[in-house]
Design goal:
5 strands, three-stranded antiparallel β-sheet, HU Protein, Chain A
Amino acid sequence: MFDILNKYLFQHKSISIPGLGSLVAETVPAVTDFANRQVMPVQLKFRFNKYFDAPDRDFFAYLSQQKNIPDFEAIKCYNEFAWELRNKIRTED
């Protein structure tokens, strides 16, 4: 499951996890440092937003295509994954 979610995140720049929030990938442009004669590369930074936790239909369509299962099964599978992830986060020290 993590491979599919990682692929989706990098393709769509955000992913929502029910009950947790959203991970958003933001591109930081390249920066020139003339004093040191350097060009700092483009960076990808991740931001977490706890308020947007509802995946859209496109995500479930993508998940169902990747797992080769019907949409309703993808919704059920992802919600169970999110529930297990929340419980794992809450129980680990």
